[in-house]
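Sequence design from tokenized structure. All designs in this work follow the same two-part layout: the structure record, then the generated sequence. An example of the structure record is given first.
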């Protein structure tokens, strides 16, 4: 089927609307939504694809994954019923029918009811924790159960696995408490206050009592989960169906129901989940898609992008499994008053499962803005400027109206007045932001010229150029990035790399998001009716390209110098998404600069690589990265108590070797505030405390230590560089 055939559908959409359209009929409204979505995709998506059987197959796979990605509900005969429509999604859409969706509603509801019944059956039976067996948690390695009895056996294993995990956690927590009490008893003078707190705690419990506590918590958690699933609305199911279609185009093209768009606007507006993280649904999970700079999660540094949230625990309460919950229900559980603690059980990209305790608070705006420091390495390197930029913010985001480009210009001015010999710009974990500001900011380091190409569909790319001939900093420059540096961060790093203006250092590559999305209101397709409340489509309309013609999409920016991190052997970023748009290239544009060309880059790179090879901390990082990759690849877990305990104890013992990598202050370099900033910092105790925490974190950061060594090499070999002092 081709797009011309769809054109007829849209021509008749208006007559359908006014031929007895009932806005209260969900089926008629759903037809309007899909018609409008496909209209926008046809007109505006950067890379529209043929709506044919191949497309239908991908959409079907997406949908099946969204309704039962972990294969806990459906049995094979039900999957077979659905698969009869695997190649018909295109035909149904054209005919304005949703037979697959209608069939799936009944099957989904029936499967949820059956799962609750099976859970209750298994839960009422004796759970043998001594029997040695394993559970496979990677659904791609399992088939759908052939029968209800097979499904029940998988539920038996799931429940046993959950019980073993909970019991092990409770026993370990009690053992740690006993150990702490023993230490305090041996040093009573040092722990008098702590002893009084311990005395108020409940008595120690037997293993059987702890097991019963775990069972009670499981019952409460699963009851809440099944209750939530029972409240799943038709609109929620339909949104999953529609997004199974839209994400075949690319992972960033999504349908937002009116309620979801409202929640999105709230989150983007800063009224976040109480922890400072932005979340999105992914299959049955809730995924962390960004960490809000200055927020509680950002300060804690434990929660990270791509973490999957498995459960939520309030203070003094048992954790609640939120797998399969609607996003708005998850958000309600995570939100809470300032000062309260919420504990999230999260699954890391490496497969490890950890508890992350976060004290809810308001986002501290100061931490989100550009700020600078002075650094030196006694006897090796004097006066280097360091600038941290957590995100590319615009003027409307800051009370005094300054944009990040303007603020970076101010920080550069302060550092130049301090006579720095080089500048390090830290864009690690900077998820991007304002396009105008990244263009202006890149222009601070070059005289003028193109910074990035932006290409709409079926049109030539147009340039965003630095039109300011002033060069605000003309000396040695290093840009630090990592796998979470995205969008605007990638534009700046790519431009300065192409211009040979800076040395880019960081992880294997940056995130690789080289596309631009816009929201469109679906009501606008039906111009004579403005109050249909159909929702919005977030649609990929453009692509970023470097001045050398290559895209930042998928590949990201590969640094000049790779600094290994814990994700060194694990694919992260855009390339980890299903249906991610491919890397591509267009014609380069003319670009050149003579402010500071790094003609000795290969020498600088070689020296850094030799240091990395002999650096104990980077050696440990690579060891840990391999360990995390191995853990990620292991998907079958023992579920007898002894076997699971040995497995967990072994993993914890292995991890201890890497726990303190960033705990010790490094003696190789010093960090100072600029004199001009001290009056502002010393204004109140909260600013003093935040500044102290920031500096202490930097003093332990051996990535910055290596950046300073690279800067030393740049300065020492400066005679080999072409420099124009302005």
């Amino acid at each position: 089927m081709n797009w011309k055939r769809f054109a007829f559908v849209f021509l008749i959409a208006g007559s359908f609307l006014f031929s007895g359209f009932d806005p209260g009929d969900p089926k008629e409204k759903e037809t309007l939504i899909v018609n409008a979505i496909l209209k926008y995709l046809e007109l505006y998506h950067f890379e529209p694809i043929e709506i044919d059987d191949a497309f239908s197959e991908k959409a079907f796979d997406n949908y099946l994954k969204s309704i039962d990605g972990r294969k806990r509900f459906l049995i094979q005969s039900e999957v077979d019923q659905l698969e009869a429509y695997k190649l018909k999604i295109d035909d149904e859409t054209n005919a304005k029918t949703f037979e697959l969706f209608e069939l799936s509603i009944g099957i989904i509801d029936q499967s949820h009811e059956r799962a609750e019944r099976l859970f209750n059956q298994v839960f009422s039976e004796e759970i043998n924790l001594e029997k040695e067996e394993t559970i496979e948690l990677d659904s791609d390695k399992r088939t759908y159960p052939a029968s209800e009895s097979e499904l029940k056996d998988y539920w038996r294993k799931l429940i046993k696995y959950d019980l073993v995990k909970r019991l092990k956690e409770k026993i370990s927590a009690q053992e740690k408490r006993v150990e702490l009490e023993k230490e305090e008893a041996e040093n009573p003078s040092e722990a008098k206050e702590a002893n009084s707190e311990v005395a108020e705690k409940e008595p120690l419990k037997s293993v059987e009592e702890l097991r019963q506590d775990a069972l009670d918590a499981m019952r409460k958690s699963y009851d809440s989960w099944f209750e939530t699933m029972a409240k799943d609305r038709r609109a929620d199911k339909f949104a999953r169906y529609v997004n199974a279609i839209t994400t075949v185009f690319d992972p960033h093209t999504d349908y937002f129901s009116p309620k979801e768009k409202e929640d999105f606007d709230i989150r983007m507006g800063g009224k976040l989940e109480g922890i400072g993280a932005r979340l999105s649904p992914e299959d049955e999970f809730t995924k962390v898609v960004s960490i809000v700079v200055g927020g509680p999660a950002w300060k804690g540094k434990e929660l990270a992008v791509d973490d999957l949230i498995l459960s939520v625990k309030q203070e003094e309460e048992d954790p609640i499994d939120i797998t399969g919950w609607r996003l708005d229900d998850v958000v309600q559980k995570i939100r809470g008053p300032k000062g309260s603690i919420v504990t999230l059980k999260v699954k890391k990209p490496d497969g490890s499962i950890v508890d992350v305790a976060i004290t809810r608070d308001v986002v501290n705006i100061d931490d989100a803005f550009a700020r600078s420091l002075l650094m030196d390495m006694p006897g090796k390197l004097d006066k280097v400027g360091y600038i941290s930029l957590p995100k590319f913010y615009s003027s409307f985001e800051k009370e005094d109206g300054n944009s990040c480009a303007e603020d970076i210009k101010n920080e550069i001015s302060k550092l130049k007045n301090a006579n720095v010999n080089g500048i390090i710009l830290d864009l690690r974990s900077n998820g991007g932001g304002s396009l105008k500001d990244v263009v202006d900011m890149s222009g601070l380091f070059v005289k003028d010229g193109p910074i990035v190409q932006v290409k709409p569909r079926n049109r030539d790319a147009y340039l965003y150029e630095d039109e300011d001939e002033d060069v605000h900093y003309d000396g040695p420059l290093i840009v630090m990035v990592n796998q979470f540096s995205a969008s605007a961060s990638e534009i700046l790093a790519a431009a300065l790399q192409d211009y040979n203006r800076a040395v880019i250092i960081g992880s294997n590559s940056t995130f690789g998001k080289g596309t631009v999305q816009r929201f469109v209101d679906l009501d606008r397709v039906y111009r004579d009716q403005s109050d249909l409340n159909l929702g919005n489509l977030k649609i990929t309309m453009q692509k970023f390209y470097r001045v050398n013609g290559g895209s930042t999409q998928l590949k990201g920016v590969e640094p000049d110098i790779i600094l290994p991190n814990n994700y060194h052997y694990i694919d992260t970023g855009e390339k980890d998404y299903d249906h991610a748009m491919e890397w591509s290239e267009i014609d380069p544009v003319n670009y050149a600069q003579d402010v500071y060309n790094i003609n000795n880059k290969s020498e600088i790179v070689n020296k850094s690589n030799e240091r990395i090879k002999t650096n104990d901390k980077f050696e440990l990082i690579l060891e840990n990265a391999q360990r995390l990759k191995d853990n990620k690849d292991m998907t079958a877990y023992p579920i007898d108590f002894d076997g699971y305990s040995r497995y967990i104890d072994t993993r914890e013992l292995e991890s201890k070797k890497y726990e303190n990598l960033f705990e010790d202050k490094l003696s190789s370099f010093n960090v100072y505030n600029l004199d001009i900033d001290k009056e502002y910092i010393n204004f109140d105790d909260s600013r003093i405390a935040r500044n102290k925490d920031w500096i202490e974190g930097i003093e332990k950061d051996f990535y910055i230590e290596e950046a300073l060594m690279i800067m030393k090499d740049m300065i020492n070999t400066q005679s080999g560089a072409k420099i124009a002092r302005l």
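The longest strand covers residues 536-545. We note this feature because it recurs in several other targets discussed in the main text.
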